[in-house]
Amino acid sequence: MPDNIRLLSLPPYSPELNPMENVWDYLRQNTLCATLRDSYDDIVDACRTA
């Protein structure tokens, strides 16, 4: 690894650093939770609808 790059450890849950975590949290609580989908495309459609 080059000398000018330093790796930093992130906490396991850090929505302020990774905004996508907020999206997944919303989908789990409102749309995808306890719902079975037949295919990947069905899951993508449910996410888009949400």
TrEMBL record:
Give GO terms: molecular function aspect only.
nucleic acid binding
- Source domain of life is Bacteria
Domain annotation Tc1-like transposase DDE: ranges: 3-33
Instruction: Please give the name of this protein.
Output: Transposase
- Pfam families, alphabetized: DDE_3
Highest classification ranks of the organism: Bacteria, Pseudomonadati, Pseudomonadota, Alphaproteobacteria, Acetobacterales
Concerning InterPro entries, the annotation shows: RNaseH_sf (IPR036397), Tc1-like_DDE_dom (IPR038717)
Q: Which organism is it from?
A: Nguyenibacter vanlangensis
